[in-house]
Write a structure and sequence with these properties.
Length: 406
Amino acid sequence: MLKPEILSPAGDKERLDAALMFGADAVYLGGDAFSMRAAPENFGAQSLSEAVKKCHGKSVKVYLTVNTLPRNREIELLPAYLEQWDFAGVDGFIVADIGVLSLCKKYAPRVPVHISTQAGIVNYASANDFYNMGASRIVTARELSLSEIAEIRAKVPKELEIECFVHGAMCVSFSCRCLLSNYLLNRDANRGECAQPCRWEYAIMEKNREGMYFPIDDSENGTYILNSKDMCMIEHIPELVSAGINSFKIEGRAKSAYYAAVITNAYRAAVDEYMQNPSPNFKTPQWIIDECYKVSYRDYCTGFYFGAPNENAQISFEGGYIRRCDVAAVVTKCENGYIFAEQRNKFCKGDVLDALEPQKKPVFFKADEIFDLDGNELDSLPHPMMQFKIKSGLNFPAGALLRKEK
């Protein structure tokens, strides 16, 4: 039984560092072009080269997204772009377009090619054809069940890896092929510019009754019929492994470094626990499950993995995210009986905090004595990025997260 890869999002350097610290086996990130996420900072030529070196120094792989659908005028830019990142040593290109796949094999033949979820692979015939065209990995469409993935696994070469999303936001459209954003706002989702109008609240208004809104369902405020719940498979590690999935992909290049850290850590810990006791009766420890509720999230579901959601449609009826926990500070060091840290959100003397360090259960403690670096005692920390220390006999590594429940 192969241990699945934990594949984490890295929208910028801060998110990359979080994923590395908290246990990613590989990261996926975008360059300054051809990326399906235009909102994050992404990586320019120098920063991407530095990121590859940093990751390889920690034996972590780097997959570069080249997954937009380029227009004619952009094709001539691709050869030099691909050659540049072949030379930089990226470990894979994630592509959605057959033409881009062909150019990858021609201009960057050493770099493995992964076929994006946007290609909509839902059967073993497509998977085999992509393998025959030179792909080394497929990212399945999110609309597949685990039994369908297992059948694909059984009917493709063992050398063809299978990657699947296990956590994060879900697109309302089939394999992210959506025109809503382009139609309403001239922002093309297939070119990394989705404005997520599926998350908006809708009601019907009749042409001659301006200002009179008619709800589409029984809610007095309208409906979120296009607004999907988030996926969370943290309690289903045995089923994912049994289906033959090689890589567990966490969605979220546009999300925070805190999200990247916490969710990477949760799946890292869950997989490690399971691999120590690979039983079909394995139960994810409760503290790991709880971690998935300490980030901003919509109500969770299991996507299509256990069948099509025909009854409840997995709609989230709230417009925003649920947020139950704030990052209070980030640890810089621990010495001489003090935790030294840099503040992120306000907290007060006497508050109960929990400290999260890689692959360990959070430690709860009370911040009874807080001081600035000059030794002056403080009642609260209201200023972002303030340096301070907490008197404590506990020791945590630099980068550990101190959190406070809301």
